[in-house]
Amino acid sequence: ISQVYVIDFGLAKRYRDSTTNRHIPYREHKNLTGTARYASSNTHLGIEQSRRDDLESLGYVLLYFLRGSLPWQGLKAATKKQKYEKICEKKISTPIEVLCKSCPVEFASYFHYCKSLTFDQRPDYGFVKRLFRD
């Protein structure tokens, strides 16, 4: 198999206002939307999701495909909220170099790039493609 199709638009939303074409506003105190295992650190912190979060989440999916697990899997807690908090703590406290240990170096570069993006910044998708192709 040489191609994988990841398709799930159930939680998709526009990142631009359809009337003004402006980027959606930065907001805080949002509830976690999506699967905690793959959610971006900012999503766990209650920050509105944007394109940078999509890329970070994709990185976690790719790491999962490569390794079969992620460091925050299997954490136990009494409640769902506490479990999400533990996952968040683990994601934030795990350095990128540790997260990507034993992986191709492109993964660490990818996550550093994702973390460097601002909320409304347009990612350089060409750079991301070249990172994994070259």
UniProtKB/TrEMBL annotation:
Q: Which domain of life is it from?
A: Eukaryota
Residue ranges occupied by any Protein kinase domain in the UniProt entry: 1-134
Give a GO molecular function annotation for the protein: protein kinase activity
- Homology family: Belongs to the protein kinase superfamily. CK1 Ser/Thr protein kinase family. Casein kinase I subfamily.
**What's the protein called, per UniProt?**
Protein kinase domain-containing protein
Which organism is this entry from? Aegilops tauschii subsp. strangulata
